[in-house]
Here is the input.
Amino acid sequence: MAEVGARYRKKRLDRGIKARADTIFAIASYKEILYLLLPRALPVITLLVLPLLLRGYWGKVLVYSCIVGLLALSWDFLASCGLFSLGQSLFFGIGAYVAGTLSYYFHWSPVLTLPIAFLGGGLISAVLLSPVLRLRGVYFAMVTLMMPLLFMKMIETTGLLGGSHGLSALVPFPNDWVARYLAVGAFIIVLFIFRRVINEDYGLVLKAIRDDDRAVMSAAINIYWRKTQALFVSGAVGAFAGAFMTHHYQFVGMTVFALDYSILPLAASALGGPGTFAGPALGSMILVPLSETLRALGGLRIALYCFILILSVIALPEGIFHYIERKYHQFEKLVRIG
Amino acid sequence: MSLLIYGTISSIVLALYAAGFSLTYGISGLANFAHGALYILSGFIAWSLLNQVELPYFLSAILSIVISGFIGFAIYWGLLLRVRGIPLAELVVTFAAGVAILELLMWKGFYGIQYSLPLFVEGGIEIGKVAVDYQRLFVIGTGVVLVILLYLFVHYTKIGLAFRGMAQNERTALSVGIESDWIGSLSLAFGSALAGVAAIVILPMGLMESAIGYEVLIYALAVAIVGGLESTPGIIVASFILGFGQVATAKFLSAKWMIIVPLVAIIFVLVIRPSGLFGKYKELEERI
Amino acid sequence: MKNKVLLIFLAAVIGVSFSVIFAPSMAFSSPAEPIIVGVPTSIYTPFGRDGLKAVNMAVEEINAKGGVLVGKEKRPLKVVVSDTRDGEPTTPVHDALMAYEKLILEQKPHATVIAPFRSETIIASMDLVAKYKVPQLQTIAQTPQFQVKFRTDPEKYKYLFRVTTDAAIDAGYLSGALDALKADFGLNKVYFIPQDTLWALGFVGVLRKHCEKTGWQEIGYEPYAAGATDFSPGLTKAKEGKAQVIAMVWDVPLGAGIFSKQWAAMKVPAVVVGFVPPMAAPDAWKTVGKDVEYSIHVEFPVGASVPLKRLPKTVEFLDKYQKKFGKLPEAAAVNSSAYDSVYILAAAIERAGSLDPDKLVTALEQTDYRGVGGRLRFNKDHIIVFDSNPEETGVCVVFQWQKGKRVPIYPAFLAEGKVALPPWMK
Here is the structure.
């Protein structure tokens, strides 16, 4: 093995068109514009067209993929800030219950409850998790793992908010098309906003907090406030996903805090490539339809997510998206040495 | 009186759950989220050996403990070595492995009243008007013996000292010739074997099902966090606090609130004093 | 190098799984297109598993006779299953509903039987069924919420039918057994341990009211969370309070099994009365042990797992089941209603002469079928009427373990023995 490595090396070169399409030369010709635009436009166009093509059950799967995609994006946003959460279902559940309660007790329609759940959910999540913001790594992950479970058991035990029976017969969306395009639209918008923000100054500070928080502190930036903001944003997106599902299924119960909603975004992000937002989005678009086709296997699906998660973490830690990105921009070949 | 006895039993059960988890974390800094899964898995191995291969009970119990040790070793060698050093990746891998094992068992159909291990000895005695069956006394005995053995092992045997050396300072240990990969695998093997021991004594009192695996993980985490992730006296004190807390809640409030106790304890401790009651206060590593 | 291998493996896993999408999922049409009967339920629970077997048995019998007459042609029945997994403690309800919806949208069943296990899933599925207009004959869930929700909009929910009892009826039967215990042996101290779900609380609520009226002393009332795994506090309290009867209602398999074992281990000197499936199962004598002796259980409706000499149809059904599957069904509920519901459906289809949902609903409402569970007719809430005369209504039975056998003790016309008191209670 060592001998072979000494004879060959991998040589990576930027593709010609990438070199030509840098900075201002991007608008030099249509080819360059297309090169840059296509990877961004293609998914958007596909996602906008798919609801028209996919009817019935697969339309629902598309919606579910977008929801999981939203959860994965919110996970990635937290991870970009250095907060590794094992409990996205907390945000999901909070948003679901806010929307569900408003809809059940006051009969408000989604037009009102979704924005309230979005903002309120983010606020509640930020407030709940801010005391533990000082914790690092493993400890934060453990708290996020415990919190949804605590909520689930509290609701079951106290019987508040519908208890173990849940709240049903809630107000649905006016029609299916609204639901589908809302999910797809929210997904695309959040994806592009996050990708943009993380490369702006605001996002750079967040990434710096992940890399070395003491350095950021010594630059006189209050990292706790930034982290709380990150929690708010992430929580709001997760809460929106939860509120959407509540109205889509006209039901909310204590199982919205289930482990499934924490593992699925995690597996999607690990598969797609954490840190790039497009990675988790891609990962969820692959994983959810995959798991739906395997529904016949019952409980094996969750075991499958876990396998994929483990394999991705070990074999392809950078994720599929980075791999694709690299292949798109560069080509590699083995060059003989000596 | 019954509060005292059942509180003690509860506490020792919790200590048994947490012993393996704490050992692994103490030695190799690996939070083994697959602990609950390994617990249930050793129970099922024992059941399979007993019912399908038809070995005598004693032999199945011992074999299942040894086999879980091997499985722990294999998990470390196969999966965790490759992500060694990236703490969150380790956590994710053990967590996913645990969930995968539990879901596979559920899918294979391992649920139902027929999946239970028989009691060691039937019958019981009365201690001051409270009926205690022999199995529960056995649990208490095992717990006490295990803690004593663990203490002796970690302080007086060569491997035990090597474990502690690794935990204190890995680089120095390496330079003295203690190989970290090997010791790390052994730590997970020991942790799993301890989970197996706990399973063999505790499972006969109830049923075996994957849902219990998640519960055991939560309890082990609760005890380890409250007591301090690497200290043995911490486990004992924490398990008594939580055990008596649970039984008292059941007696004076209502049984439904029992499961809330460990969850609230975890969050409470993590917010106020993350290293736990007896853990060394590691300011730099934990807090910013 | 090794990572490449793992990478290829990962790609292969994803690729193979994706290729399943393109596998043909259409049922190719046979000469006579089958009538599709959907079974969306939790196969994990003994209710779902054995209920499905009963359904398959009924479908085979009907098909062996040529099928069901729809208009002018006879068409066979075909069962399609979707595991909603809602019996498992951690499955989200949304997931179960997705499984149900997938069944409806892909397999296009003409009707569904058995239906989801958990009460909250059933209530949530009512809106789903109303949306897709697929008649549902549910045979598991006992929650009284069904009627409450049905009455809010009978026209919208008319596609839903319940071919089993609800908690209040089961409790009514059990009250009769409690009366016998009081009258014959003078017992009067009771401890309640219900599962903290609506149907079990409703069940025990009826029992409590009855006990209050008839002079029982309530030692304690302690609901446990559905996922509970430790009943020792409650059992200790029962023992300390010298309870003579423990009224226990539980359906989640895990908790029921653990309760059985703990009750046996702690040797509480009280009679267990209620619905604890693992202790009522045919082989409980072996799996739980001889401690199940003297426990009293309710079975709803008859024929679920105890053959009754006075009702030959139950003996016939259980014989057939045992011959076909090797052993008696495990749970004291669902099996006979699942079997009967297939026949009810077939009869309704023949009456309606078509598979149109609205016509089918009208035909179902006119059901008057003498099945294993008694004479089955729906009332205006789309529930089967249960009372004490098998010639007029459906019936349930209460039985007690005596000397290794399950002896029916109530109602009087079905009884094959008298209620017995354990020797350690005298």
Notes: Chain B has a mean pLDDT of 83. The two ends of chain B are 46 Å apart (CA to CA). The interface with chain A takes residues 31, 79, 82-83, 87-89, 91-93, 95-97, 99-100, 103-104, 106-107, 214, 218, 221, 225, 256-257, 259-260, 263-264, 266-267, 270-271, 274, 285-288 of chain B (CB under 8 Å).
